[in-house]
UniProtKB/TrEMBL annotation:
InterPro entries: Siphovirus-type_tail_C. It comes from Lactiplantibacillus paraplantarum. It holds the Pfam family SPP1_Dit. This is Phage tail protein. Residues 397-458 form the Siphovirus-type tail component C-terminal domain.
Length: 462
């Protein structure tokens, strides 16, 4: 049973072990609210009437998750005299609804069959700085993601330099071959996962995962990046458009986002200096002092989805960080990366049609590579790729609310509605209806005959 209370005092953290980051502290709180919650209940729902018997003695808010099997024009439910819904309300509007996004690709990244690293195929895929494409990628069958391949027990970024560092990024790049037609107007959604490992040498490692948008000839026209800075600096995210042939080191690109997420999520740990020893010589050992800043932000270990739509010369975009524990989008913009925007290409400089994609995993060699000191490079993956042909509705024209397979969450506890993690507004609602103790009649409406639907709620006691 969970009781509600409020904190009255928090002591200063004290180290448990000198020199370590483990701390102990005391939190004092008092029970100030005579409410309590029972364990969460999850129940499957059917289209039409559902009878729900709720324990407890107080009203509670339902959270309904729906994954339709086909494009959905509207959805809603009736509960205890209240109505709540999303999409066109009247039968005429529902009949005339326009589907703005028609699915072209829905790839869970479960196979490398549609990806090639042929040198000619990847020659148009660009990134910033010096780089050399080498090594290989593979599918992690346990989680259906693309990652750097493991060869002989290590990540295959290709051959590392042995005597000199020149700032060159090294690693595999692949081009997606599954698009048959170029799209003038489109919507693309893809996720990148990035994780740095703790430790004196591990945290100095630099990785860069880049998902590239390509034209029909394979030239880069945009990119979504999660990357690291040298010496353990903060991890960043970038979303940029470019003209074919741009290297992102010139002026032929447009930055939609470049940053570290919310400033409140940044923690600057003390800078560590470490000595490296050249183990290749037992007679003349060489010591080198290196810096490990240990700068941590919300992107150090993160899973971020890009959602980009091109409609004529108007680009709308969203970057949304997801939880690695439950797969749900984060809601707290003060702690996690939740950003969106709109940009108009007034001079039509970035009008190239979308013809494909590239995926790049790069590592920049560091002093540890030269001096044969083992460390762990960042873990990077591509997760999920979805593409739609975008049809721009006219103002006030009724539209579909979701495509097949997109998750809709109607949350009456937080008073929010999301479609595939994107916040949307309900069109018709008396309020956010509540479940009452005892027997409830909850009626689901919409084209939901074979949809996957789940009701979640916390029974409450007064």
């Amino acid at each position: 049973m969970t009781y509600w209370g409020h904190i009255t005092a928090i002591s200063e953290p004290a180290p448990i072990n000198p020199g370590m980051y483990d701390m102990t502290l005391t939190i004092t709180f008092v029970q100030s609210d005579p409410r309590a919650t029972l364990p969460q209940v999850e129940k499957p729902l059917n289209s039409g009437l559902n009878t729900i018997t709720v324990d407890g003695t107080a009203r509670t808010a339902p959270v309904i998750q729906v994954v339709p099997k086909r494009p959905l024009k509207y959805i809603g439910f009736n509960l205890n005299g209240g109505q709540f819904g999303l999409g066109p309300e009247t039968p005429d509007d529902q009949a005339n609804a326009v589907q703005p996004d028609i699915h072209v690709i829905n790839d869970p990244i479960a196979s490398m069959a549609m990806w090639t690293n042929d040198a000619n195929a990847i020659s148009g895929i660009k990134t910033d700085g010096k780089y050399n494409y080498q090594g290989s990628a593979e599918i992690n069958a346990d989680t259906t993601v693309m990652r750097v391949a493991y060869v002989n027990g290590g990540k295959d970024f290709g051959k590392m330099p042995t005597n000199q560092l020149d700032g060159t990024w090294l690693g595999p790049t692949y081009r997606y071959t599954g698009m048959t037609n170029a799209l003038t107007n489109y919507r693309v959604r893809a996720g990148l996962h990035h994780m740095k490992y703790w430790g004196t040498h591990n945290f100095r490692a630099m990785g860069k995962a880049q998902f590239s948008l390509l034209d029909a000839s394979g030239n880069t026209i945009g990119r979504f990046v999660i990357g690291d800075h040298m010496q353990g600096g903060q991890t960043y995210v970038a979303l940029q458009l470019c003209k074919p042939g741009s290297t992102f080191d010139d002026d032929d690109h447009q930055t939609l986002y470049w940053g570290y997420g919310p400033s409140g999520a940044f923690r600057n740990y003390r800078t560590h200096y470490s000595d490296l020893v050249n183990k290749s010589s037992l007679v003349h050992s060489k010591y080198v002092t290196v810096v490990n800043r240990e700068e941590v932000d919300c992107l150090t270990t993160s899973w971020v989805f890009m959602d980009l739509t091109k409609a004529g010369n108007v680009y709308t975009w969203e970057l949304h960080q997801y939880s690695l524990y439950d797969g749900q989008p984060y809601r707290n913009a003060n702690k996690y990366l939740i950003a969106s925007g709109r940009w108009v290409d007034t001079n039509n400089e970035y009008e190239s049609a979308l013809g494909g994609f590239g995926q790049t995993f790069l590592k920049q060699p560091i002093t540890e590579d030269i001096d044969n000191v083992q460390y762990m490079a960042p873990y990077m993956t591509l997760t999920d790729l979805q593409v739609w042909q975008h049809n721009q509705p006219q103002p006030n024209e009724p539209t579909y609310i979701a495509n097949a397979g997109e998750e809709i969450v109607m949350d009456c506890e937080t008073d929010t509605v999301t479609v595939n993690g994107r916040l949307v507004s309900p069109v018709w609602s008396t309020d956010y209806p509540q479940l009452k103790p005892g027997v409830n009649g909850l009626t689901m409406v919409g084209d939901l005959a074979d949809a996957q639907m789940t009701l979640k709620y916390l029974p409450k006691l007064l």
